[in-house]
Amino acid sequence: MTKDFTAIGRALAAPARSDILNLLMDGSTRPASELADAAGISASTASEHLAALLDAGLVDCSPAGRHRMYRLADGGVAAALEQLGHLCPDSPPLSFRRTREAESLAEARFCYDHLAGRLGVALTAAMVERGWLTEPDLDLTDAGRVGVAARGILLVPSKRRTARPCVDWTERRPHLAGALGSAIGTRFLDAGWVRRIPGGRGLVVTPDGRRALAEWGVPAASLAA
Fold it and tell me: Which CDD domains did the record assign (predicted)?
């Protein structure tokens, strides 16, 4: 059976919708007003674009008081968009703010619920180097289970694959996804090793995070100062 890609193509065929989806790629839930501001469009125009994304099944919406909150429909949509990014040209930064945002995304970000960018790729490479993950499938080894448990990460039974590679669209190398990737991302955020950049998708690695990364075996040179 063949697939009809045109429905999704039509849903993506507007720069503002690309801006909206890029912002939601970190798995966050955001109000329509914030998405409109990020895309540089009016609230009424944002509503039209969000309706198109809803109709295509790319986003979900839920009420929160007087606001409507939007997020990606699920992790499958995030994974598909991440892979589609390999075929898409980079959006040219048209301002200093956009240039800084692009730099922060390349440095560290969430790809739905797991760490990506140079941070995610370096962390994955360090876990492979230590024998915690296999190559190329990034399966978790027995040594890896011990290692992540010692760092406060306990995996619970899930239908989700424990670990899998997700090719990073900025680094062109794999970072870790799956249940383990999600658990590590949550651990880094809860421990204050990374913090979200307000209004954006990028992450900042904190001083505590740099010390933690050294314990994970990530060379300091892997990340920007």
Answer: HTH_ARSR
